[in-house]
Amino acid sequence: MKIALKPLAPVLALALLIAPVHARTPAVAAPPPLLTTVEQTLAAAPAGSRFGLLVTTLEGEVLLSIDPDQRFIPASNTKMFTTAIGYAQLPLLQQTAKGTGVRLETGTGGTTDVVLHGRGDPLLSSADDCKTDCLQTLADAVAAKTRVVRNIVGDDSWLPDERWSPGMSWNNIVSRYGTGNSALTLDDNELVVKLAPGAVGAAPTIQSSGYYSVDNQVVTVAGKEDKIEADRVPNSRVLRLTGTVGAEVAPLTLRYGIDDPAHYAAWRLGELLKARGVRVDGAIEVRHRALTAADDPENRKGAPATLPTEPAMLAELLAPPLAENMVRINKESQNLHSELMLRRVARQVGSGSIADGREAVRQLMTQAGVPETSYDFSDGSGMSSYNRMSPRAAVGLLSWIARQPWGMAWRDTLPIAGRDGTLQSRFKGTILEGKLFAKTGSLNASRALSGYLTTKSGKTLIFSVLANDMPEGTDSQATAAVDRALVAIAEAL
């Protein structure tokens, strides 16, 4: 393991030597050097865990490093790169981009089809309490124009059909975290199932929209715990629930992924039209744009991408400004919205493909001075097990962001230790509560934390700590070791 520590300034070294010791500690014992403390703290993690760490000043002075050039699976630290591209290339505050649209299309024999067009808006909603960016608005427009329609078509050809990135684990697809990506996104592309325990020995009650057929094999048992498993064959609309739920468990709201979001959005529009008295005589259909070789910028060789043209719409929504969505992506670690952010950038520079998004990342990292050998991304959210990143790459990006005019606005999208987002329950009661702003990451024996922290002396530092290869079931122990190490660094510096 390659380890390097910059020599401490004389004043700091002296401060460490004369720092007070705890009660009942022999007077001759002095606190160990910071590097040793951090090493020992991380070594307390489960055997087999692998760590990389880099801490620098805002000016780039390296203070502490442990394998800073080793590459790790970064999990949701990937979202730092995606949102940085968004801040660098997209208008975040203006509500000018076209969102979802709807039009009527004359079919065979003079019949009327309804075509719902997606344009990458992640916030389209059909919730009963929807106030803005509502599918109901488009349903009202159709109902005001015609009372009988044939087919309802979900058209997501604004982007090529790449619903999952390379390296997405198949077992995550059924979950809300692995839901399909589509230019036509509705309700976060999640199916909501509400489950309430029954009597002991009986099945719980199930409520859902009806889009999936729910095979309920869950059994109610005594107690306060639930152990519910979900299973669904890809592209199937049969969701099987198994396991147990305690009779004393409060009603649960469960969320599952949707494989074909364009189909779901068209189906939901059909339900809204029926509720408005519109007769639907045909089927729910989809129009996808197949991924081709031309969607790879290497194959285009500098030529502009060919994008489909759209006819005039009967009605369309404006996509909400992206700034608020950036907060949700980083603080909540919202996978789908991050993927759509990458694809929105990709469509601005090319065809909207993942390959175009990867090229946008490469160009941004080159601009930031981060070498290509220090990272490799296959998606925009961090769900891909193919992604790799070194601590030095993360710190390089964070350092570059801090020098941008939008750097502080971007930092404000990060979770705050002990206060909100995915760091709400971490660092409570420590010197770093409210003083660490960082992106978390969690995936398949991988944990990551990268961002900015304020030390005891008031210095702002940039850091990245990556952990991989923890034995199954020990992720929380590795996370705790990382947190203790960062607290030790903040206390010493």
What does this structure look like?
The chain has helices spanning 10-18, 34-43, 78-89, 135-145, 261-275, 297-300, 322-332, 335-349, 354-368, 391-402, 407-411, 475-492, and strands at residues 3-4, 50-57, 62-66, 98-106, 112-117, 148-149, 152-160, 190-196, 205-208, 213-216, 219-221, 226-231, 238-246, 252-257, 279-280, 284-289, 315-318, 375-376, 388-389, 436-442, 446-454, 460-468. With 493 residues, the chain is α+β, with helices and mostly antiparallel strands. The protein has two domains: 3-91 and 324-492, Beta-lactamase; 98-318, no CATH class. The strands form six sheets. The chain has a six-stranded antiparallel sheet with strand order 1-3-2-22-21-20, sandwiched between helices. A five-stranded mixed sheet has the order 16-7-5-4-17. α2 (34-43) packs antiparallel against α12 and α4 packs across α5. The longest helix has 18 residues, at 475-492. The two termini are 24 Å apart.
